[in-house]
Amino acid sequence: MDNNKIKVLVVDDSAFMRKSLSIMLESDPAIEVIATAIDGLDGLNKVKNLKPDIITLDIEMPRMDGLTALKHIMKQSPTPVIMVSSLTTEGADETLKALDLGAVDFIPKASSFVSVAIASIKEDLIRKVKAFAKNKKRVVTRLNTFHNRNTGNNTIKSTHVNNNIKALPKGNYRAVVLGISTGGPISLQKVVPVLSSKLNVPTFIVQHMPPKFTASLAQRLNNMSSLHVKEAENNEIVKNGVVYIAPGGMHMTLRKNGMNVSISVSEMPNGTLHRPSVDVLFESAEKVYGKNVLSVIMTGMGRDGLEGVKKLKAVGAHCIAQEESSCVVYGMPKAIVENGLADTIAPLEEIPNIINKAV
Question: Which end of the chain is more exposed for a tag (fewer CB within 10 A), N or C?
Answer without folding.
Answer: N
